[in-house]
Write a structure and sequence with these properties.
This is Lactonase drp35. A hairpin with a 5-residue loop joins strand 1 and strand 2. The mean pLDDT is 83. The chain is built from no helices and four strands.
Length: 94
């Protein structure tokens, strides 16, 4: 799993450092997202993101029927299932 040290954090100061901050847009904090993993060079529409009990990430490619399994620690990508009959729209781990 990712450690808490790897995650970006927000630091509240000034008017935003209160139980009910009423701040202007100039004081809104932001974090810029960075690419984490590239599943494919193709422009896939990925949906259905969820984790199993072992912490593995599952997601699906809506139009080609691929289901991908990603190890978040190693970023290893596997394709354990491809649907040739129907394109899945969701995944459920049990």
């Amino acid at each position: 799993m990712m450690s808490q040290q790897d995650l970006p954090t927000l630091f509240y100061s000034g008017k935003s450092n209160s139980a009910v901050p009423i701040i202007s847009e100039s004081e809104l904090q932001t974090i810029t997202a960075e690419p984490w993993l590239e599943i494919s060079k193709k422009g896939l529409q990925l949906e259905g993101l969820n984790f199993d009990r072992q912490g593995q990430l599952f997601l699906l490619d809506v139009f080609e029927g691929n289901i991908f399994k990603v190890n978040p620690e190693t970023k290893e990508i596997k394709r354990p299932f491809v649907s040739h009959k129907a394109n899945p729209a969701a995944i459920k781990n049990t």
